[in-house]
Fold each of these.
Amino acid sequence: MRFGRLASRVLTKHGLEVERRNTAEAAEGGRQGCPRRRMAIQTGKATGRKPSTHESDRQTIENLITYLDHDDPHRVRREDVLGFKNHRLASINSRTGKLVAAKTVKDFDLVALKAVLGWARKSNLTSCNPAEGVTLDLGKPQRLRWPDLTDAEAEAILRHALHAQRGRERPKT
């Protein structure tokens, strides 16, 4: 039974399965038995991830489904995960209008894929975890200056310290 998109999303978000009785949809292999959608919901509970990450994981899985144009976990290969990673790196963030940061892809998307597909592997929904070992090397941040003070900065601090007047401090601090 289908209640509409909004109701179905809310029910799915809370981990409730809705039985579909439309035989035409079931014959076409509709999303009734879609383990990928269940993975996004159940992974947080199964892997111990916090509830605040469930929505992020769900969004990552939705992006993967859109990228692959299917939701069959048995068909996901390592090349698909690598392609998705490159696709996300070339994507534009809808809020900022800039490219998605490499740190975002590494710390959120790849972590979510590894957790969800790892859970699928442990639950015997797939034979392997294609996201295992996929990473993104982030270079060290470029050093813009040395951590030491420059001579001018040290001279300014010492000059002000030399001319500081006592008694103007607050006693409680």
Amino acid sequence: MLKKSLLISGLASMMLVTGCQMPEQGQSLQRTSNYDSHQPNGGHYPINQVNQTQSYTHYGYQRYDRDHVNNNGHQDVIPAVDRSLLADSVTRLVLTNDVVNEAGTLVTDKYVLVTYDTQADNREYVADQVKRSALSIVPRYYEVYISDEPNHFDEIERFQHMTSGATGMEGTLDQTIKEMTQSSPQGQYNEETDDNLKIMQQKQRRLIDK
């Protein structure tokens, strides 16, 4: 359990990257999201997987004064989530569940959509594990939806090159989410009670016995 907690902490820490200045016209935030001119390494933040660095177990700390971070009254650095890296990490974490054979993740500005393939008979139990895996690593403001229907791999993949500002996509995305929730169990995670280990263990036993 401790090793898994460290893994999750390490994955979560690499998700938040820092951007310098507002992007120029036509330049996406993603392209500038790992640069900061104040940094001694030339301003580029390395983004590593956990198995590529030993620093994920270290605590993180930064201290600045106002003059250091403000430029003409504005922050030089824009904290931003690297959505591609978050999607990669969620997919990998979902695949740590032994009963999941394949997984795909789409991350938008407010949704995380996960499609997975499993041969397990207990769909509710697997859905609960997949949902918890995703929620353990994404920022709290994200809504997570999951599906074990194979056709939803293609459904979420078609959005992979879209941006938050794309017009006409919101309705299509909402329809995909509706289909996912109607066709697949969404897990029984409850934020108010799942911090209680005893309640969580009881819930897991009920799911396994189904």
Amino acid sequence: MVMAFCHKERLTCLMNIERQWANSLRRIVAFVCFVLFTFSSVVYSANINALKAVFMFNIVNFIEWPEESFATSDSPIQFCVLSNLRVLKNLRSVINNETIKGRTLEAIAVNSDKDMENCHIIFLGASSEQQEPDTLEFLAKENILTVGESPDFLPQGGMIYLKHSRKRIQIEISLDSVKNSDLEVSSKLLRLAIIK
């Protein structure tokens, strides 16, 4: 009788150890999956923001501004970023010590309509409140190229939408919005883009 009890107790003890081990293993697997998912999301986000910065830099090669958009013949091309500091950080790295059409390049963060007056190209982050049609129309009349990342950017009056999916970026251009300005967009860029 005592032997049967000891055997039963040992079996119960082994089952409890096995259950604890299985629960610990599940927790470890869940934690590893969480860490991998979080890390891959951060890497994906960083890659997308770096791609947007590179696109911003390259788009400038295909745009002509009227001479009056610059104070002097050697004034820099001013990149402005609103509501996406990651794009700004990447853009500063991309344009560091670069020139386009004989002009140096600068990238700054802007927070209000008044800050935008000296911009030549402005990137409006998805959370930006300045994506209202009135503001976008004003920027077009000031010959400021507007680039955005939210799906409703073009219908509200934006010029270029950087659409991203699956680690790719596709350019969509609203010709109507571009025509509201005196900016000239190269046919090479138009061939690469989806025209809306």
Amino acid sequence: MYPERDCLHFLTVDTDGFNAPTPTAGTTAPAVRSRPDTLNVGCGKARLEGALNVDLSPRSYADLLYDLRRFPWPFAGDLFTHVQCHDVLEHLPDTIRTMEEIHRLCKPGATVAITTPHFSCANAFTDPTHCHQFGYFSFDFLTGDATHNHYTDVRFSYLTRQLVFHPSRKNILLRRLANRFPSFYERHLCWILPAWFVSVELLVIK
């Protein structure tokens, strides 16, 4: 999803806080709505209408082509009220720096919706572009709930958090059990009865 290559567009900040894409030779600048409130990070082909959709791949449905491994991202701070980050964090090498950048771009009280494969999911290790695997407690390091909460000064709080399983009859009970006792599930059951992905919604604290 993020091969080593130069971005297709060089970016300069405009007066609204968004970076206006200037196309390189042979490319065309995408049409970007002025001042959308939602940022769809690593959108791929899951375009979100009314949002600013960002991805590196020219085969995506992005408004803006940008390599999300390059910091800072081309936006002013305190700009968005919602960030959608579905199936992208596992592709980026620096999770803490990525979340710090999302925090910078968000207004106080903004929400961040994240889905990422659970570490017990076969696809978490099968996809060769995945850099990291995540569990139920991975984002505790950003909310201050983890013992080792000194990796960053930025803070979020949980709005929702759940382990999601492939839809089936047997997984109805398992989903309830795993989300009621997530620590027990991850220590004793997950390699026998694997989860599908982790879904969290975070509130930006500033």
